[in-house]
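Q: I'm a student working through a structural biology exercise. My instructor gave each of us a protein and asked us to get a predicted structure, then write a short paragraph describing it. Mine is PBP1A family penicillin-binding protein. I'm not confident about reading structure output yet, so if you can add a plain explanation after the tokens, that would really help. Here is the sequence I was given:
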Amino acid sequence: MNRYPTPAVRHLSRRIVLSSKNRIILSLFAVLFVLMLASLASAQEKIATFPILPTGYSSIRVFDRNEKFVGRIMPNERYWVPLNRIPLFLRQAVVAVEDSRFYEHGGVDIRGIARALVKDVVKRRMAEGGSTITQQLIKNKYLSGEKTFNRKIKEGMLAIEFERKYTKDQILEMYLNTINYGNGAWGIAQAARLYFDKNPEELTEAECSLLAGIPKAPGRYNPLGPPEKVALRRSVVLKRMVDVKVITPEHRQSLMAHKVPVMKPSEAPYYVNFVRGKLVERFGARIVEQGGLDVITAMDVNLQKKAEQTLREGVRKINGTLQGALICLDPATGDVLAAVGGVDYAQSPYNRAFSARRQPGSSIKPLIYAAAIEKGITAGSLWSDAPVAYPRGDGSEWIPQNYEKHSFGELSLRQALAHSNNVITVKLLENIGVPYFVDTARKMGLPLRNHDLSLALGTEDVTLSDLVTAYAPLVNGGAHPEARTIIRIFEKHRGAWTQIAPAVTPAISPATAYVTTEMLKDVMVYGTAKGLKKFSQERPSAGKTGTTNDYRDAWFIGYTPQLITGVWVGYDKPKPGGKGFTGGAISAPIWGKFMRTALAGKPAVDFTKPETVVTAVIDPTTGYLATPECPKKQTEYFTVGTQPMQYCPKHGGAAFQPMSSAQRPAVPAPKPAAPAPLSEPPVFDRQSSP
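A: Happy to help. First, here is the predicted structure for PBP1A family penicillin-binding protein. I'll explain a few features afterward.
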């Protein structure tokens, strides 16, 4: 066999070898072409992980009733800003101070690592990371913040891979859109809006120099941080820009001399957040993202600050784990002048003033007494608090009891309200009828779902806001104003104002409102809020305490002719506050302290008596007109036509003529027939306390 190839075979072999080489070369070209396409694809890859920030956005600005700036309502969503909308100066500043060799290294800067290692050895700990911008991005996106060598190795490997996949500009864009800028701002879009109320492309060089220094320590170097530390960090940023020859020393000096105004955090966060909800109700959920509104609220920002301070100090003085709420209204318009939903918004933004539903205890009683006055029952009528049993649907009996189970015998309706008598209130509700009371309460602004006698003891959960507005008719001549937090709105895109007028509707008669108020004055003189007696002597005022019998909720709702304020104190997770945790001891002092501040400088004026109210001197032990022989005499207020016309029969009244035959006799205290059954057992088998 011939071991040597023939010339033809050798020629064919050469052709085959050449063909193989060509195929290899072609394959290499193909691979390079694919890599080139991949590189182009990566350069064009969509890297935004949030919606692109709309142009022309302006935040929702909130002002108080005197058009003093209060704060802003910020969008919920995060937005992405393309690199071409981020100022070049900011990009240069960030690169200079964070990673000056960013455009030279491949993800890991060996020089930087060496420099950091020297410092780590000197300080005997991992003080310097030597991280590039790419490594910082990797750490923020994929790794924890622990300072270990293993994490640094992973970080470096991922950074190198990242740089193969993305361009430098893409990496810088991702970095600027994802880093922490402090105070809850993530990414340049939120930072520019939070600190300067701008879109990124609107930032000045001076503002950029502040923002560029934040990533090193967001909690310390953000523009709202300690001024001296913020200024020092800004100086470092500008010096680095000089060092890398991005700006001149003269330019640095000029920028350092430029004071940068920063938007202050919103004041009154509980109030502003509630306004946010009202805007969403009116315009829809997207309004917060769209922005472009100026909102004039009913708030008095100075009063709001006092309310926040007074509530916080008053509640924490009792117990650091307690919560509270306070609302102050203008009773004529329903304007919410101040609203505080808790002792610390940063710790708990839940708004207890408008959202929390709790049992009002005895603070609901004035509405029952007002309904009784409206129906013709008088403040001087006498009622017995002898025990009475009411059958339940399950065959058992409910026997309401007074606070600490005391009985007082026969009391006037005025005294019963001042002392917060439970038994008499239940009997009064039974007499006027639960449906009648529920309808009256609804007109006054307090919607109720229960329809049984347990309502007399405040067993149905209500909000502080609803309860305070339900008291407003008592000082507002019987008219119920809806709580108003927004007075007018300017829509920038339309260039138009929308006025929101007060909504006031009749609820009870002016006479009923006045008589009930005169009764409630006694609560602050000798009743359950007698600690406010000095205040009531300085300013005509009225109010009512409320406490559930297990001391879970403490209330006080009180008013003067100018203002009505309600205070609630309790635990978020209801639990007893201990003996003495009553509305009179806990909430009334907070109310008094706030109202003294709120009314400072205002004249002390009394409630206006309508012509439909008359006075008569009566014997409070009998309810009849007093004679000279009556040992006790008292001036009482009556709706015209309900005042007594007979003189006291116990003290020689027969010798005196009736006041006028044209006047009908006083409505006597009713004697209940067989006890009316409860439609269902009370919510709890407890009774209300003062």
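A: Here are two points you could use in your paragraph. Residues 7-44 form the longest helix (38 residues). The mean pLDDT is 87. It's a good idea to check both against the output above yourself.
Q: Great, thank you!
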